Input
Amino acid sequence: MSDDLIEQLEDKISIFEPQYEENDCFSTCLRNIIRKYSYRKTGKKNSFKISKSDLNEFTRYNRTTASTADMKYTKKKLDEELKAENIRAVFEFTSQSQSNMLDRDLDVDFISYILSDQDKSLPIVSFSTDYYDDPNFPWEVTERFRVPHTVIILHVEDEERIYIWDGLISFKNDNDIGDGIIDLPTERFIRYWDNYFYSKEICWLSLESQMEVDRY
Output
């Protein structure tokens, strides 16, 4: 990894908050993409005034069952908070039981497109439990916590490696957010991303015109 890339990745996570519970990855990732997006657009870490407790409610999180809200509920609650800023939450997924009905493929090229658009936030994706057996994942996860896991995508390098931020690693490493940066060969990333209930699932924030936001 070059020094320039290290600096770029460290800048992207510089205002992240660590993951404070072993299973609150979804609300933590939402919190951090909102903070980063807010800071990029306004210079303030939380100009949208959305707290971690708000996000726990939007994802219906509790310490026993983790996040239980479906995507429609979480999107609705986020859009209600972000509408005044002409921002909406976007959730897209492919189904394992139906053909992909989207106009585009959810693939690495699409991730690169999101990352390159300054009107879009960093994207988050859900991984299957196979991810916990990856050589780059540093701990053994007990059966109790082997549930689908949410991470933030930071960078795609020549479509060969993908850099992510994993809040669970920051949780395990005394809340050091820098330790959450890991890189995966694209082949393994796709395998973990493509082996979950929705097959592939991705979420990001997007700046839209008022007319576009009003449609949602």
The longest strand covers residues 149-157.
